[in-house]
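Researcher: Sequence recovery benchmark, item below. Answer with residues only.
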C-alpha cells in the first residue's frame, strides 16, 4: 500500500486502517509519510471533545494520556500504511510507555501535530518515538511500544 498512498490521508481512509472510532479516534489527517520510518499526522482539538466536560469545567485541557494515545495511533498508522494492513486483519495494542514528558497544555482550538518515528521492530512489536506539538512548540513526547495481534 505504501507505494499507492496519496497524501493527505483523510479520516475516512484512517478508519479503514485503524479500529478506533469516535470518541477515541484521535487522528484526523496524515500529511507526511515515509514508510517504515516516519509519519506526521494532525488531531484538530475542538471544544466539542467529550473529555472537556470533566477535564476541567471552565478550563478545558486535553488529558495527557490522550495526547500519548494520539501518538500511539499515529504510530499504528505508520506501521499499517507501510504494510498495507487494515483494521480487519491486524491490531496493535499499546504495551509500554517510556520517557513521557508534558511540556504544554493542549486546549480547544489547537491543532495537535503528531510526529512519530519508528525506532525498530522486534518480531510482533514496534517501538516508536513520538513528539506532539502545537504551533511548532512541543506539548508532549514519549517512547511507545505496541504489540501486534491477529484481529
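Model:
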Amino acid at each position: 500500500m505504501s507505494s499507492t498512498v496519496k497524501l493527505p490521508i483523510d479520516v475516512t481512509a484512517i478508519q479503514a486502517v485503524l479500529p478506533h472510532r469516535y470518541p477515541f479516534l484521535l487522528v484526523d489527517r496524515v500529511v507526511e509519510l515515509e514508510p517504515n520510518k516516519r509519519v506526521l499526522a494532525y488531531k484538530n482539538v475542538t471544544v466539542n471533545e467529550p473529555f472537556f466536560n470533566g477535564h476541567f469545567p471552565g478550563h478545558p485541557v486535553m488529558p495527557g494520556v490522550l495526547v500519548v494515545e494520539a501518538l500511539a495511533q499515529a504510530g499504528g498508522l505508520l506501521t499499517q500504511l507501510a504494510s498495507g494492513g487494515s483494521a480487519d486483519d491486524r491490531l496493535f495494542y499499546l504495551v509500554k510507555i517510556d520517557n513521557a514528558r508534558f511540556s504544554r497544555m493542549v486546549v480547544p482550538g489547537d491543532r495537535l501535530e503528531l510526529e512519530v518515528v519508528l525506532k525498530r521492530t522486534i518480531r510482533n512489536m514496534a517501538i516508536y518515538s513520538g513528539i506532539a506539538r502545537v504551533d511548532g512548540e512541543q506539548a508532549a513526547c514519549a517512547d511507545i511500544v505496541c504489540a501486534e495481534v491477529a484481529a
